[in-house]
Write a structure and sequence with these properties.
Number of helices: 20
Largest sheet: 10 strands, mixed
Structural class: alpha+beta
Mean pLDDT: 90
Number of strands: 31
Oligomer: single chain
Low-confidence stretches: 219-224
Shape: globular
Radius of gyration: 36 Å
């Protein structure tokens, strides 16, 4: 029987918050029937182990395995033993595959005699996607479906150090005995990836965004994070030493070797050296000796071509000048933004500084800070900066509006403010602003980026200041007609949201628009006697990478209040925002929610007990009052009887007195 086209191997370890999102991205694949999914539970202590069992029960091509914790590389090797696919993909359990990702890559790699295919990568978090330095460096200059016979064909590929963006031919891995380091160690991808590049006779690159790599902020304590950083650094050094042993066996040309050395010096080492002040002091000598051992194989001219910061750091390491290193290494980012800062360095280190030269290898960063309007213009406050270049350095800045047709329109700048006329943009749809920064004979350019979504209504137009890929400011313009759509109720049944409300003005459809991709989906509206309803499938919202949408119509839309739904580990809510309605589908901590609900129940029970005690006290008081009333009634009867008797006796005495008088 013919095996599947692709075996997807997923190591799973304590990722219950993200795992279903990852597995659902596989269910959404256009060639899901040609894929087998091997989910390797690596000793999870959370609900991840139960989640993979549920998927294995529900879907025939999902298979669950359980093993003791041994690390990601060991779990991947375990999965390789059971894989039957023509190609192998290693997927991390919190990441996402584009819906047609496997189909597109398979169609390319299977058409040639390729050992593997490399796909493009985007990093993503809750609201945004961005390209990563690793892959910008790796793939710069490569065209779509570029065939390569060696990493020497394109040396920057040494920056591509993950395995998750590749489909490997299973026979290629088996015949070349390519496996992950079979012990618990971080950065096992670095060795596996470079080994694949070294042993391959033919591979192909696809520029399609195939792999979406989730960025998760670390929530560990400072102490835990510092301990992890130290272990990470040591593991990275161990893996690099294994790479040094590996590349001795293969004919890598000088360009490839130099690119690899430069990556180690500017990325792999610096990433951790700049945190050196957080490591235990008794570990520093041993750590620096390990770095020095690797530095000894790197040609001196590579170090001499580094920027000022790196040259000084490695000079300090070679001098074993730990005290100076502890003071200077943590200053990397501060130096980038303020090269004029005072440095407490001796002259031999100061002589290595040339920040203007360093700036030539840096990008322009231009940010929208704020905005304001008058009756004719939008005023965009901005700041523009080239790292390592002093703000005092003479420079000039231009701003150019780019429309949806890539036509350019120069904009006026006053100080640090861009002037954007309303009449220039009212008839356009999607706009960006390109900034050009001139200093000396150099020119840097980049799109203006945005960190805050805003919206302005002017002359019945809604000018939306959105955030696109790489945080680029995207100005979308839509016309709004006078009128208000009031949504009174939203219900969820069988994964279908139904919206009901009232509007004095008839409208035919509504649209949801993704806040990142600006993808639009429209839905028809049923309208009868000022009442309306429409439906939106939940799948349209949840299947997107960034699960943030805005609900819009040709009129303004309003909700009476925020409306929230819960499905498994997802919280879906609808809320008023920026002249439209935000639809947000987020992960939530179910245990925390249950904890809060439980606390609420406990509070209710406490209040109930208090009321019960008060009722009991009131009942007792009522009984006492009843008894007292009974006693008072009895006493009253006695008093009445006594009074009657007294009156009777008084009358008799009076009669007797009268009788005595007449005698």
């Amino acid at each position: 029987m013919k095996g599947p086209k692709i075996s997807v191997i997923i190591p799973v370890y304590n990722v219950e918050d993200y795992l279903e999102d990852t597995l659902n991205s596989l269910l959404n694949q256009t060639i899901i029937d040609d894929i087998e999914i091997l989910m390797i539970d690596d000793g999870s202590s959370d609900d991840s182990r139960y989640i993979i069992e549920r998927y294995a029960l529900d879907y025939d091509n999902f298979h669950a395995f359980h093993k003791e914790n041994g690390g990601q590389g060991v779990a991947r090797n375990y999965g390789l033993r059971y894989a039957n696919g023509e190609y192998i993909h290693f997927l991390d359990s919190d990441d996402i595959i584009a819906p047609d990702g496997y189909e597109k890559l398979y169609n390319v790699v299977s058409q040639g005699d390729y050992d593997f295919i490399v796909g493009n990568v985007l990093r993503f978090n809750r609201y945004n996607c961005r390209e990563d330095k690793l892959f910008i460096n790796s793939f710069n200059g490569l065209k779509e479906n570029t065939k390569l016979t060696s990493i020497n064909n394109h040396p920057p590929l040494v920056w591509d150090t993950i395995t998750c963006n590749k489909l490997y031919k299973r026979d290629f891995l088996k015949e070349n005995n390519i496996k992950f380091i079979d012990k618990k160690i971080f950065f096992e991808d670095l060795l596996f990836s470079i080994e694949g590049y070294c042993k391959s006779k033919s591979f192909v690159f696809s520029n399609e965004y195939f792999y979406y790599w989730r960025y998760r902020a670390n929530s560990s304590s400072v102490t835990q994070q510092n301990d992890k950083n130290l272990k990470n650094f040591k593991d990275r050094l161990k893996v690099i030493r294994l790479i040094i042993d590996l590349i001795k066996q293969y004919e890598l040309n000088d360009s490839t070797l130099n690119a690899l050395y430069e990556k180690w010096l500017t990325h792999d080492f610096i990433l951790y050296i700049k945190k050196i002040d957080t490591y235990p002091s008794d570990s520093l000598n041993e750590l620096l000796d390990e770095v020095l051992d690797i530095l000894s194989v790197i040609p001196i001219e590579i170090k001499e071509n580094l920027n000022s910061y790196c040259r000084i750091v490695y000079e300090m390491i070679e001098n074993k000048d730990i005290d100076s290193l502890l003071d200077f290494a943590p200053l990397e980012y501060k130096l980038k933004i303020d090269p004029d800062m005072k440095l407490n360095l001796n002259q031999k280190y100061l002589s290595l500084i040339d920040f203007v030269e360093d700036s030539l290898n840096e990008n322009l960063i231009a940010k929208k800070i704020d905005m304001d309007t008058d009756e004719e213009n939008i005023f965009i406050d901005f700041e523009a900066k080239v790292h390592y270049l002093s703000s005092k350095h003479p420079h000039k800045i231009n701003a150019i509006l780019i429309d949806e047709n890539d036509d350019e329109f120069p904009l006026e700048i006053s100080g640090n403010q861009i002037i954007l006329p309303f009449d220039l943009i009212e008839d356009k749809q999607s706009l960006k602003i390109k900034m050009r920064y001139y200093y000396g004979s150099n020119c840097k350019e980049s799109y203006l980026i945005n960190t805050k979504r805003q919206s302005i209504i002017f002359n019945n137009f809604d000018f939306e200041m959105g955030i696109g890929l790489n945080k680029i400011l995207v100005i979308n313009v839509r016309e709004i007609k006078d009128g208000l759509v009031n949504i009174e109720k939203i219900s969820l049944d069988n994964d279908l949201f139904t919206f009901e409300g009232i509007s004095s003005i008839k409208f035919d459809d509504v649209t949801i628009e993704n806040v990142l991709s600006f993808e639009k989906i429209s839905y028809p509206v049923d309208f009868t006697d000022q009442r309306f309803s429409f439906t939106i499938p939940y799948s349209d919202i949840k299947n997107s990478l960034i699960k943030k949408w805005e609900l819009k119509s040709i009129y303004l839309m309003k909700l009476p209040n925020k409306i929230t739904f819960f499905k498994q580990n997802n919280e879906i809510y609808f809320a008023n925002t920026r002249n439209k309605i935000l639809i947000s589908d987020d992960f939530y901590d179910n245990s925390e929610r249950l904890f809060n609900i439980n606390n609420e129940l406990i509070s209710v029970k406490k209040e109930k007990r208090k009321l019960s005690r008060k009722n009991s006290q009131l009942t007792e008081k009522n009984a006492d009052l009843t008894q007292l009333n009974s006693e008072l009634s009895s006493e009253n009867k006695k008093l009445k009887k006594t009074l009657a008797e007294f009156k009777s006796r008084k009358v008799v005495r009076a009669v007797d007195k009268v009788k005595g008088y007449y005698k």
